[in-house]
């Protein structure tokens, strides 16, 4: 439903002059022009009327008892900051210094005594057009701000729903313990990950990073999160009873490919065969994880691969590496490696590895350590990309 702009209220004008005849004459002209007019015999009374009526136009004499025109203008400018009061000063003086003082005090325009009716009407109408334009802009700004607040509220609700789809930061799956850290760069994220026990002795997991940012990437990541379930992995990530994660990735490639090449994602999909200590995996453009010992020695897993849904003819390969009982698998999105400091230097794989190695004796602390290191690297600035850090340890000792 389209938000309607409210109808502007009648314009209130305060006429301030200690000369009763001049005051009444000016007010009569303004009333004939359709303005609601109130009169004040001195500056203090004028200030009270502007305050009470929320008047948008003030026509005042320079020389008045109580507050003169200069002081009245200063008081109006100091007090009424939520909206603009247009001040027209009437004076019989011609000195440039007086005009300078008036402008410094906040006066918008001048009219000389004796007042010329045609000039007064022209000045007031010009002021009225400016004022109504300001009111319209303010009203449009209010409507836009309300719409922005509603959108942000919806985004926060969507982000909360997306967060609830992710596993908890610490999750035991069979004989594996998974630790995770997730930091979206904005309300919504294009990252998704999950861990499952597929059957006794087989543990499946994946990490996905959708290209781009914002709502579109988030919708795609949520769709993938709903699609790539334990059931789907059981049915599509095995060939002749043996783990084959590339089969699942190839199916996703066929399903999500679009000719324009704008909707694609990187993925690391793994199936751990506990009895043989073999990790069957398919790397599709996702950063190479680290297989790490508790002493901190590390080796990269995988050699890159091609993103999913970028090319319909892309081929994906299942590979195997050892995942021993004391090993730790550290996975991370490119939000970690590509995070830049103030000098534009990327954090890089070597720093991720160094931080992970320093905490390898307590694998549960690795995600938090990497987040802390990136926060320091960014000097407290928000990340430009979503950040996911996942750690899988075979034997829980921390």
UniProtKB/TrEMBL annotation:
Biological processes, Gene Ontology terms: phosphorelay signal transduction system
Annotated positions of the 4-aspartylphosphate modification: 61
Gene3D superfamilies attached to this UniProt entry: 3.40.50.2300, PPM-type phosphatase domain
InterPro entries: Bact_Sigma-Reg, CheY-like_superfamily, PPM-type-like_dom_sf, PPM-type_phosphatase-like_dom, Sig_transdc_resp-reg_receiver
Response regulatory domain mapped to chain residues: 12-128
Record keywords, A-Z: Hydrolase, Phosphoprotein
MF terms (GO), sorted A to Z: phosphatase activity
Record-linked PANTHER family: STAGE II SPORULATION PROTEIN E, STAGE II SPORULATION PROTEIN E-RELATED
Listed name of the protein: SpoIIE family protein phosphatase
Organism, as annotated: Pseudooceanicola albus
């Amino acid at each position: 439903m389209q938000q309607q702009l409210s109808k502007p209220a009648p314009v209130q004008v305060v006429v301030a002059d200690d000369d009763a005849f001049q005051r009444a004459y000016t007010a009569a002209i303004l009333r004939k022009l359709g303005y609601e007019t109130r009169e004040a015999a001195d500056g203090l009374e004028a200030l009270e009327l502007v305050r009470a009526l929320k008047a948008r136009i003030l026509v005042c004499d320079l020389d008045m008892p109580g507050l003169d025109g200069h002081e009245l203008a200063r008081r109006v400018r100091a007090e009424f900051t939520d909206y603009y009061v247009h001040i027209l000063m009437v004076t019989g003086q011609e000195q440039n210094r007086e005009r300078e003082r008036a402008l410094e005090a906040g006066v918008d325009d001048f009219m000389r005594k004796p007042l010329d009716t045609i000039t007064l009407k022209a000045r007031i109408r010009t002021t009225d057009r400016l004022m109504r334009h300001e009111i319209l802009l303010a009203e449009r700004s209010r409507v836009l701000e309300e719409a922005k607040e509603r959108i942000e509220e919806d985004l926060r609700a969507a982000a909360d729903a997306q967060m609830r789809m992710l596993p908890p930061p610490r999750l035991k799956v069979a004989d594996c313990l998974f630790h995770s850290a997730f930091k979206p760069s904005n309300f919504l994220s294009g990252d998704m990950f999950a861990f499952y026990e597929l059957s006794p002795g087989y543990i499946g997991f994946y990490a996905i990073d959708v290209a781009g940012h914002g709502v579109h990437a988030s919708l795609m990541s949520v769709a993938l999160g709903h699609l790539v379930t334990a059931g789907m992995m059981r049915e599509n990530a095995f060939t002749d009873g043996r783990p084959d994660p590339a089969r699942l990735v190839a199916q996703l490639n066929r399903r999500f490919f679009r000719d324009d090449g704008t909707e694609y994602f990187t993925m690391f999909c793994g199936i751990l065969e506990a009895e043989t200590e073999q990790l069957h995996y398919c790397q599709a453009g996702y950063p190479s994880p680290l297989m790490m010992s508790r002493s901190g020695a590390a080796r990269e897993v995988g050699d890159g691969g091609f993103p999913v849904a970028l090319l319909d003819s892309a081929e994906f390969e299942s590979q195997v590496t050892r995942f021993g009982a004391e090993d730790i698998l550290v996975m991370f999105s490119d939000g970690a490696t590509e995070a830049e400091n103030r000098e534009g230097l990327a954090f890089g794989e070597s720093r991720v590895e160094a931080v992970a190695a320093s905490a390898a004796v307590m694998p549960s602390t690795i995600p938090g350590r990497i987040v802390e290191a990136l926060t320091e690297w960014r000097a407290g600035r928000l990340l430009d990309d979503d950040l996911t850090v996942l750690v899988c340890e075979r034997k829980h000792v921390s």
